[in-house]
Amino acid sequence: MCYNKYNMDGQEYLEQISASNRPVTKKGRNIFTSKYFMLGMGALALLIIFIIIGSILRGNKGNNKNSLYSLLLHIDNTSKLIQDYQPEIKSSNLRSSSASLYGVLTNTSKKLTDYSVEKYDYSLKKVDKDIVEETTLNKDALESDLFEAKINGTLDRIFAHKMAYEISILNSEETKLINTTGDSELKEILTTSQEGLEVLYDNFNKYSEAN
Q1: Who contacts 26 (Cβ-Cβ below 8 Å, separation ≥6)?
Q2: Per residue in 105-127, pLDDT tens?
Q3: pTM of the model
Q4: Residue ranges per domain, the chain?
């Protein structure tokens, strides 16, 4: 009986020693709920937002520059055709409106060119070839219509109709830039241009409808 008790006490003693030497297992913390993880995720989200905003701003800047270049080429092409065909116009009133339109366009072109050189180091060689091709095709199509009208003896009516249409397109292009740019200088140039074009549109449109 004493032997069994002694053995039992020894066994319990050994178990106590074994238990005391076992590594203590701490309850693990979930990394996804830790303070540092949440802070890191918040910083990452902010970084992604800043990258997206930056991309949008750069995209808008690039789009505005291309739109500005397209507008500038459109203005210059239209001015060139006015200069070429104005001497062929028979109506004195239409010639007067044509001269006024030429003045508005060349003045706007100078201001936009100066602005573009200062803002983007503009030169025709730097304009995207797709923009050059598109504006050139539009110019060629307009020139073809005017030449045909000249041959057919209907230049005054066709010229008035085409100039009214070109003014409406230019106005739309300028409005797009006004609405997307944050540059007050560019807005002022375009707004001044639109004020002059608005009166001339009425002149050309009335002549076209009356003839």
Answers
A1: none
A2: 999 999 999 999 999 999 999 99
A3: 0.72
A4: 60-210
